[in-house]
Amino acid sequence: MIAPENASRPAKILNPVTLLLGLATGLAALAWAGRHLGTVDWHVEFTRFHPMISPEAQYEPTVEEMCAIVRTRCRPDQVLVIVGGNSILLGVGQPADKMWTRRLQDELGDGYAVVNLAMRGSLPNDGGAIVAETLRKEFPRQIYIANQSAFPSSGPMGSETYRFVLFDAYYKGYLLPWKPRSDALASILKTVDYHRYHQADLEIGGMLDSWLYFHNLWNWWSYTHHFTFATPMMPHDPGAHWPRDRFADAENDFDSTPFESRFTPQVVAADLDLTRRATETFYTENADKSWTRSRLAFRNFILGARDEFPDPLKPRTLILIGRNSPYYTVQLEPRIRARDELAIRDTRAGMERLGYETMDYGGDFSAEDYGDRSHLTSSGGAKLAAAVAPKIREIAEKLRYLPQ
Amino acid sequence: MPELPKALLRLKTWLAYRLTEAGRHALSFALGLLMALVIDYVLYRIGLPSKPFIYVAF
Q1: If you compute the radius of gyration of chain B from its CA atoms, what whole number of angstroms results?
Q2: ipTM over 0.95
């Protein structure tokens, strides 16, 4: 033991230069670990983004994490089919072993690999679309599926809830150059409003993450070891800090939920109203009971749909236009049903003119195929898979994905 | 600056007298590593909707 030279004035404990060196080394080592973990698929039992591994439970998957999920599920000789879109394509109300994307995989066979990256409330160009775009060179034989109702389109930026995926890919340079999206991004990045604090956090966080890769590292830790914080949302104690791989995909089964608890009088009244008004603002009724399309609404829809996906990706993008449950639609007057059908035809025609592939579904579905107004039961999911599979094959043929 | 609790102050004084130069570097480096871990974690948490306790929302 060496005593300091001047016993009345003890030496400082810390050396600032060494401290900074430790800090820099630590950040570099963590960044390396985060970057490496981005190439590892830790979602061993992945089925889909069920609530415990989705933003609803404060788990925000990164682009690299989702790409790793795809890589372990698609061989180079298979055509990759990425399913994005919202809770309908996620398969809400369908248990994992009966979810519609499993049926789609069975329908398509071994030549295709179907990966369900849909998320609740997601717009067509959110999460799954960003992953497909990121993998465009690695998996050039790919088809992306998303869904929407007639007319609405999301524009180039997608929804705010899933913007973390867009920023993640943007700052890491994974996106195709696409002027409408670049302009929209530049515009919001220029006008940082710190009162909209979460937006600013995402921007700055996305930029820092492109250097430090902290999201990959802590997501891996949260998934495989320990979730570091409890949230007011799910999961509640005792599972709040459990690693997220302890939670299985325990999706509720519409088929085992009694009809009366799914279709309460309040739900029925609200959903019938929504069904009746679904396309109300897009058409005006003529004296002879025919419908005239609103030019402004259609123009806005086309402009949004044009910017939604980069042009080179439109031909491999299949947009599914869904119908509401016949439980509700049969209660509508025939003229309203005619308007809804017209809206589906106009939406498909408009999107196909822009270069997208489209199809609609639900026309031949029964009330039993729906668990509520818009989500499908397992039987509805099976019908959707049977209808989508030939369209996927058709697109694969058209894009020369299959051996000639 | 608030006064350190007595025990910490004693620890600090003890370390100041007892640590060798190499020990001081080792402690500084280890503290730097720990700071990196904390910064890394805080950056991760700030990106999530549920903010860490150090975070001030306007």
Answers
A1: 16
A2: no
- Is B45 part of the contact surface with chain A (CB cutoff 8 Å)? yes
CA distance A28 to A30: 6
User: Does residue A16 belong to any structural domain of this protein?
Assistant: no
Question: For residue A156, is pLDDT > 60?
Answer: yes
Distance (Å, rounded) from C-alpha A370 to C-alpha A339? 21
Written as one string, the DSSP assignment of A202-245 is HHHHHHHHHHH-HHHHHHHHHHHT------SSSSPTTSTTS-GG
Q: Is B36 an 8 Å CB contact of chain A?
A: yes
Examine the pLDDT at A219 and tell me if it is beyond 50: yes
Asked if pLDDT for residue A385 goes beyond 80, the answer is yes
Residue A22 lies in a domain: no
In the prediction, which pLDDT does A198 show? 66
Ramachandran sector of residue A111 (left: φ over 0; alpha: ψ -120 to 50; beta: rest): alpha
Rounded Cα distance between A161 and A163, Å, is 6
Predicted TM-score of the model (pTM)? 0.91
In a domain, A155, yes or no: yes
Match 């604090």 to its residue by tokens.
A197
Burial group, residue A68, by CB count within 10 angstroms (0-12, 13-18, 19+): buried
Using a CB-CB cut-off of 8 Å, the residues of chain B touching A27 are: 36, 39-40
Number of domains composing chain A: 1
B23 touches chain A (CB under 8 A): no
- The answer to whether the beta carbons of residues A262 and A65 sit under 8 Å apart is no
Chain A closest-CA separation from residue B43 CA (Å): 7
pLDDT tens-digit series, residues A266-311: 999 999 999 999 999 899 999 998 999 999 999 999 999 999 999 9
CB contact under 8 A, B32 and A20: yes
Q: Does residue A3 lie in a domain region?
A: no
| Domain extent at residue A369 | 40-398
Mutation site, B15, B43, B44, interface A, largest A CB count within 10 A: B44
Gap between the Cα atoms of B52 and A137, Å rounded? 38
